[in-house]
Write a structure and sequence with these properties.
alpha+beta; 4 helices
């Protein structure tokens, strides 16, 4: 049986000030009150590489790096999500499928590295990521959806008023 391990990182923005803020948010909201934070995740299975998803303009957003050593983020922790009895061939087949289904240009709050890891784990039949890992991205996505819906309703309302017969 092969372990399916989730690696979790604090996200990194490229700005020291923003990174410090993210670390503080993660410490307070995840460690302090257990709600979650702003995290990057990757899945390790059958080897020393971890697999994740990120933005790129062309091609697949699926990528790998040595487990626990993604230099773009600050490593936090790892956890075992389950065990599988898949051959390396089957794991590679799943990765090839995901690579074609997850183009890098589709990366956003509603399709991010955590969603990718959930999908990857679902294909193995192991548990999904703990809810706290992607809670802030899900909340942000919901807020964007609500604001877009509100803007559309306001637009529809104003166009109806613009065309009233007096």
């Amino acid at each position: 049986m092969t372990e399916v391990r989730l690696h979790i990182y604090d996200t990194n923005s490229g700005s020291d000030k923003t990174n410090t803020t993210i670390l503080q948010i993660n410490k307070i909201f995840k460690d302090g009150i257990g709600l979650g934070g702003i995290f990057h995740s990757a899945v390790q299975v059958c080897g020393e590489e971890e697999w994740s998803f990120g933005f790129c303009e062309h091609g697949s957003g699926v990528f790998s790096c040595p487990s626990g050593k993604n230099l773009m983020y600050a490593y936090c922790e790892s956890m075992v999500l389950g065990r599988i009895n898949f051959s390396k061939f089957k794991v590679n087949q799943i990765l090839q499928e995901l690579s074609s289904e997850w183009p890098g240009s589709s990366y956003d709050l509603s399709k991010n590295c955590n969603h990718f890891c959930d999908e990857f784990c679902e294909r193995f039949g192991v548990q999904k990521l703990p809810g706290w890992v992607n809670r802030f991205a899900n909340a942000g996505d919901a807020a964007i959806e609500i604001s877009e819906t509100t803007a559309l309703r306001a637009s529809d309302h104003s166009s109806v008023n613009d065309h009233k017969i007096n």
